[in-house]
């Protein structure tokens, strides 16, 4: 296998769209040709070599090409998009759409990635050693086919909407998962080793979700069915199996209804009870001390606009107030 | 003597009432009275015809933060230059103007390779995502008036936000098949708080804040006759959920109206997705529809125009020369937060008051223009503020009601001397951008 090494020269001013960074495009090209490939920033087109140095050598075909990306590419989108073979290794963080529509090969990101990694993936292996944001292995907007094959491993935590519309393949999450895991799932397997935040398997028709750290709050439309011993990572474990989502239509096979299944490791916190976790408790009030500071600052500002006061509050106290609140606050302080 | 104009369209909320009667003085300059409108609608007319507090010429921000008057020509030049120079301009707003103006604005965005987003970004954009995922069985408000006998208000409070909605369409009117009016209708309100709308309800489901999705899925399971887990579902007793399911199934024609209480609380598009699926399920037993309670009078129209021009209703990224759409990446808030844009153009909206502070600071940092008849938190932080005539009061234009019915708004009075409409302003900017891009 031949290796091409890309090193980012500088962090782009806006975000760079680099869908050509895949073994499929690089294969059979000279370094000069690789450097001449296009990258996009907003409505401008640049050369890959404007932002990266290209070293090493590409293989004759994709399967014999490995791309190693060094330097800061945290503002680069679409790395490894639609790759079918070969390898890509990102040494740091990457932005959105890493391995999107990926069909084969192996993509390793040592750092973290933003949203939409591995969307609508059909094959291959995508490994993220850090955290990943939302919509990992999900469907593209409006599509009903999410991840259909292959494997995604995220060692850290993931955001919301992971695996929505998944109908094949495996997503293995080392940490916690935010809400809306596997919405509309129609197959596939998801393993969450940490805690799943809730709304797991909403509108799921078919598929398996393993929650090793429990679910913060189960959907009311899932029913407990039985306990089952299952082997996972070579270890036998007991799981409580829930069937659902009962709000959805389910198909039948040999006279039996096929449900989506959530497996919750036995022994983790009880899950069906309605534990109330206030979610949107944002701090919107100032303490007395802060109010006093604001009052004296207002005197110095001389007739400040609402926007100026809002900025002052945000900068000094980290509180994001609505303009209407701010204007009420100002008039109350004036009195 | 005074003049009376009938069948005037109210350019305030998405109900787009079209039966207003406006009285003006003889020269059609000043509005003396507005009949039939609700308090907010009437106030918009009266307020706009009082020219004393209005800015009538474009203003440019000076170094020290004060504003200096400039001519419309200078404003056009400024706008065209920043848009033509930018690598990824963000053009946001579009909801308080006419469809004609929208279409010209979008043409500018296409030429400049920008991002076009409308106020759906902070209200019903999530609805549009859900509609794209699962479709929408909808109807017009006329059908609601004439047929509906089951009404659900989910996460909305029309008593305050759409004051005439209930009397014109949803609760009180006597229609063709609903001759007994309110007596014939059963009302369900889903809201965590008691509101003025919920006092009119037969059943008030006081859902636990942020658990609409759970309740919707439970309702769907209940309609199928499935067992529900737990005695209290998302804050609502299980029996009440079954009771509500029975009420819905037993009607002849039902409608779900939903507002920002569900579109912007936890789950967002998923809530609407489930609500639409609930509507679909109910069609197995009776006839059901679902309608979004849109806010701005023409936010629906903005989505329509974007739809026919580029195929997507909001958050359209044209930077690569073709239309892409992915809320979460190309929406105005994300773009500002992630610092993806390098110029900002705002028309007919007030992100300064509604966006998170980080986004507001980003608008202030970038080259920016705000087009708005009023002085707003947004115009205060933009480099140039261009005042324009009020659409629906001082200029006519096409608008879409919340149920996607187009209604032609009318002009009732003259704008202040020499003031441009947004259509005229945008057309002039478009011409100038074409010149700049040609070189
Ligand atoms: S309900 Fe809405 S459209 Fe009707 S008069 Fe009131 S503000 Fe205007």
From TrEMBL, chain A:
Enzyme class, UniProt record, top EC level: oxidoreductase
Pathways involved: One-carbon metabolism; methanogenesis from CO(2); 5,10-methenyl-5,6,7,8-tetrahydromethanopterin from CO(2): step 1/3
Catalytic activity annotation: N-formylmethanofuran + 2 oxidized [2Fe-2S]-[ferredoxin] + H2O = methanofuran + 2 reduced [2Fe-2S]-[ferredoxin] + CO2 + H(+)
Signal peptide: none
The enzyme's E.C. designation: 1.2.7.12
UniProt record, GO biological process: methanogenesis, from carbon dioxide
Domain of life: Archaea
Protein name from the UniProt record: formylmethanofuran dehydrogenase
Organism: Methanospirillum lacunae
UniProtKB/TrEMBL annotation, chain B:
Name of protein: Formylmethanofuran dehydrogenase subunit B
GO biological process: methanogenesis; respiratory electron transport chain
SUPFAM superfamilies named in the record: Formate dehydrogenase/DMSO reductase, domains 1-3
Domain of life: Archaea
GO CC entries: membrane
Record-linked NCBIfam families: one_C_dehyd_B
Lipid metabolism keyword on record: no
InterPro entries to which the protein is assigned, alphabetical: Formylmethanofuran_DH_bsu (IPR016457), Mopterin_OxRdtase (IPR006656), Prok_molybdopt-oxidoreductase (IPR050123)
Sequence ranges assigned to domain Molybdopterin oxidoreductase in this UniProt record: 54-431
